[in-house]
Design brief:
Largest sheet: 8 strands, mixed
Strand order of the largest sheet: 5-4-3-6-2-1-7-8
Helix content: 25-40%
Number of domains: 4
Number of strands: 22
Shape: elongated
Strand content: 15-25%
CATH superfamily of the largest domain: Histidine kinase-like ATPase, C-terminal domain
Distance between the termini: 96 Å
Number of helices: 18
CATH class of the largest domain: Alpha Beta
Length: 578
């Protein structure tokens, strides 16, 4: 300082490259798995058809990634250690059309800055290859060598010059599992590439090139064979989706696998996962979590991949469109699941030869028009209407049992009717059908102030479902029209229960996409046949037929099962016959 107290020495300085690279490494290189991810991405960008990953001591000791890609010339090898040196982009506009996994030119200099690294490479058609040795970001030597085209990057002693970072690494086993997961993700995103993974000299994984995502999923995770996965495929304009998802009857509350890719790039996005789970609405119970492997294809200007240091997140230009597309695609895939109705009919249900009752014999079950053959939605099957009627037995006035050639099936009458009502109501709402019956003698319902306000908010939707209500004083409504889903239906009790659900904001209403769906789900729940209600044979038959004409006969609107199957083998085991 001068005598006047003014500072004369500048305090802001440009950092040396090796220091800047160590700082950058803190963002790009979090752990050994980060190194594997970056090196494998480079190999894939180089057009590799085989990628071999070898590690020692969970990657703490050594990481080696070898590929058979295009390789590099000597000049490129030297340039690749400069920060932001890349072959992927030339101009800012190129960021809108990124087709490679890497593009910033940060990975290799960041890795080299905190390790002992060697790069061996040979370009296609080159007479010789190049070997580059680097220690903590400083070049130690460059040699020529003879080798096949491709590149091998050998990283030892990660974080050798940043001991604090090294101390934060987990155990060898934990780091090894993280690396295995990184390999799995890249293998999933690139099914046409062979991946080999070795740890401490032992083979862990050898994945030959696959032709489909489902084939690669099964090769990576053998337990996927028991997870009940089904293919998903959809397109809406210039948006596409492929992948595999879990059948509703296999979804559980425990461990699950979720992987998202956009244009071949793995990414994390809880919002898109939630959108996919909304596609399972009314097919699985709350807190059930399906396996999801979703591969999105969107126009490159519609997605920004340059928003996260590790490229683990992306940003969509029209996020709502993407979420709606994912939800609709999952819903459509589930609607195409071969339902219990199909296997029931194809395997044969023993019939009693009874005739279908005339329509006026059970009018309450005819709130909605009966579908004819071929009119069922995706879960239905025209053959179901041609099969002989099954011999039905009501158990404890709650369950309906039918005999099959190889066992029995049992349906929960309340859950089954709930599914039937929900789908028929939604169809009626879509078509604008009148779902109510005008009452000769309307009835009144007294309400609290919150209940009056709740009714006013949903009055139009209630009318679409069949409940026409009008104000009848400050604390009373007059119900002039009601639906009539079955002969046991208690309209007054149903409307009161629905009002209570609306005021409380039940889980059904919260999980619904919109008010109309929420009211339809609530009415299906409260208006369905109850457990303990005795059904006539023709009512059981009609409920049975209507359930297996729905698009998703497996579950009620809460996601609970409607159907249980017991095979002869299972029955035999219960009686000690096997």
């Amino acid at each position: 300082m001068t005598g006047s107290g003014r500072r004369t020495t500048p305090r802001i300085r440009v950092l040396p490259d090796h220091v800047a690279n160590q700082i950058a490494a803190g963002e790009v290189v979090e752990r050994p798995a980060s190194v594997v991810k970056e090196l494998v991405e480079n190999a894939l960008d180089a057009g590799a058809r085989t990628v071999r990953v070898s590690i020692e001591r969970g990657g703490k000791g050594r990481i080696r990634v070898a590929d058979d890609g295009t390789g590099m010339l000597r000049e490129d090898v030297l340039a690749c250690l400069d920060r932001h040196a890349t072959s992927k982009i030339r101009h800012a506009e190129d960021l809108n059309e990124i087709r490679t996994l890497g593009f910033r030119g940060e990975a290799l200099p960041s890795i080299a800055a905190v390790s002992r690294m060697a790069i061996e490479t040979a370009a296609q058609g080159a007479e010789t290859g190049t070997r580059l040795r680097v220690l903590a970001g400083r070049i130690q030597g460059v040699d020529e060598l003879a080798r096949r085209p491709g590149t091998t990057v050998d990283v030892r002693n990660i974080f050798l010059n940043t001991p604090v970072r090294a101390r934060f690494l987990k155990s060898v086993g934990v780091e090894k599992r993280a690396i295995a997961e990184a390999v799995h993700v890249q293998a999933l995103a690139n099914p046409g590439v062979r991946f080999i993974f070795e740890a401490d000299g032992k083979g862990v994984l050898d994945l030959p090139a696959a032709t489909t995502a489902g084939e690669r999923v099964g090769a990576i995770w053998p337990d996927a064979a028991e997870a009940g996965l089904l293919p998903l495929s959809g397109r809406r304009g210039d948006f596409g989706i492929e992948g595999v998802i879990q059948r509703p009857d296999h979804v559980g509350k425990g461990f699950r696998r979720v992987h998202l890719l956009v244009n071949g790039r793995p990414f994390r996005d809880p919002g898109l996962v939630a959108a996919a789970e909304r596609g399972y609405r009314t097919t699985v119970a709350e807190r059930m979590r399906p396996w999801l492997f979703l591969f999105l294809t969107v126009p490159r200007p519609e997605v920004d991949v340059n928003v996260h240091p590790g490229k683990a997140e992306v940003r969509f230009r029209n996020r709502l469109r993407v979420e709606n597309f994912v939800e609709a695609s999952v819903r459509e895939a589930l609607a195409g699941v071969e339902s219990a109705a199909t296997w029931m009919v194809r395997e044969g249900v023993r019939g009693n030869g009874g005739e279908t009752p005339a329509e006026d014999e059970v009018p309450q079950m005819r709130l909605f028009p009966q579908r004819g053959p071929g009119e069922g939605r995706a879960g239905g099957d025209a053959q179901a209407h041609e099969a002989p009627a099954p011999a039905l037995l009501q158990v404890h006035n709650s369950f309906i049992m039918a005999e099959r050639r190889d066992g029995v099936i049992i349906i929960d009458q309340h859950a089954a009717h709930e599914r039937v009502l929900y789908e028929r109501i939604m169809e009626g709402l879509d078509s604008g059908a009148d779902l109510g019956q005008r009452l000769l003698f309307p009835f009144t319902v007294r309400l609290t102030r919150p209940e009056v306000e709740a009714i006013e908010a949903v009055k139009e939707t209630l009318a679409q479902v069949g409940f026409v209500v009008e104000s009848f004083g400050a604390d009373t409504v007059l119900v002039q029209s009601v639906p009539s889903p079955h002969r046991h239906f208690d309209a007054q009790s149903c409307i009161r229960e629905m009002i209570a659900e609306i005021v409380e904001g039940s889980e059904l209403l919260r999980s619904a996409r919109n008010q109309r769906e929420g009211i339809a789900m609530t009415f299906a729940c409260k208006g369905a046949i109850k457990a303990g209600q005795k059904l006539a044979p023709e009512e059981m038959q009609e409920l049975f037929d209507q359930l297996f004409a729905t698009s998703l006969p497996y579950h009620d609107v809460h996601g609970r099962p409607t159907v249980v199957r017991l095979s002869l083998d299972e029955l035999g085991q219960k009686f000690g016959r096997t």
